[in-house]
Write a structure and sequence with these properties.
The complex is a heterodimer of chains A (161) and B (81). Helices cover 34% and strands 35% of the residues of chain A. In chain A, the strands form 2 sheets. In chain A, strands 3, 4, 6, 8 and 9 form a 5-stranded antiparallel beta sheet that branches. The two termini of chain A are 25 Å apart. Chain A is α+β, with helices and mostly antiparallel strands. Chain A contains 4 helices and 9 strands. By secondary structure, chain B is α+β, with helices and mostly antiparallel strands. Chain B has a 5-stranded mixed beta sheet. The chains are: A alpha+beta (161), B alpha+beta (81). Chains A and B meet through β4, α2, α3 and β8 of A and loops of B. Chain B: It comes from Pseudaeromonas paramecii. Chain B: Keywords: Nucleotide-binding. Chain B: Belongs to the MoaD family. Chain B: It holds the Pfam family ThiS.
Chain lengths: 161, 81
């Protein structure tokens, strides 16, 4: 596990996050000329089925460590001035925010690339699992998607953008 | 001793979230095979092609050697984000 940069914030939490507050923190960092944010939220339908909400399980300890490793890897690839990575766990309702990836850098190219890299690799390497509650009262674990594995794999084939 | 943890579908199938076992297994595959032999649900949970294993909170291959004090976790492919 690599020690995070002081400009980075990595958190796993049940509570919601405030995009504007997180944005303001990174916007204030010296050298920042570009900020790219990604927010994932609970969708109201999945593969044609109405969804009522999600429960997110994780592996406490490993989760934080795997997130810190991804941020360190992103910093090794691109010059970044700050990174914020927040992922929620527990019960989430429709439309609630799940994940925030916020990347600041001197110029837009690095910020776009690092944000996408962090999101793609988080989905295949950080131990979170989603259980979906459907409208009919049933709940089930979501299966990993091949498209997510492919999205993560492209960063191994093309280390530089 | 080694600490063994299970998550998501694997945890639900085996009906346990954690076990403490003697450090008698040369590698993660030997541990997996011994656990899978405990019963049908264990075999189902730990026999999947896509089973993931972490040793001391790092994703590794099943051929990873185990030693006293290790924390080993078995879980399905991750679905966060």
């Amino acid at each position: 596990m690599t020690a995070p940069s002081v400009a980075d914030l990595i958190r796993v939490q049940e509570s919601d996050f405030d995009l504007a507050a997180e944005y303001a923190r990174l916007a204030g960092l010296s050298g920042t000329g570009a900020l790219v944010s990604f927010v994932g939220q609970v969708r109201d339908c999945n593969q044609g089925e109405a969804v009522e909400g999600l429960f997110l399980e994780h592996y406490p300890g490993m989760t934080e460590r795997a997130m810190a490793d991804l941020v360190a890897e992103a910093r090794g690839r691109w010059p970044l001035t700050g990174v914020t990575l927040i992922h929620r766990v527990g019960a989430l309702k429709l439309g609630e925010q799940i994940v925030l990836v916020l990347v600041a850098s001197g110029h837009r190219g690095e910020a776009f690339a690092a944000c996408e890299f962090l999101m793609d690799t988080l989905k295949s390497r950080v131990p979170f699992w989603k259980r979906e509650r459907r409208g009919d009262g049933q709940s089930h674990w979501l299966a990993a998607r091949d498209s997510d594995a492919q999205a993560a794999a492209r960063w191994q084939e093309k280390p530089e953008l | 001793m080694i600490q063994v943890k299970f998550f998501a579908q694997v945890r639900e199938l085996v009906g346990e979230s954690a076990l403490s076992l003697p450090a008698d297994y040369p590698d993660a595959e030997a541990l997996r095979a011994a656990l899978a032999a405990r019963g049908d649900k264990w075999a189902l949970a730990l026999g999947a092609d896509n089973l993931l294993v972490a040793v001391n909170q790092v994703l590794v291959g099943l051929d990873t050697p185990l030693k006293d004090g290790d924390e080993v976790a078995f879980f399905p492919p991750v679905t966060g984000g």
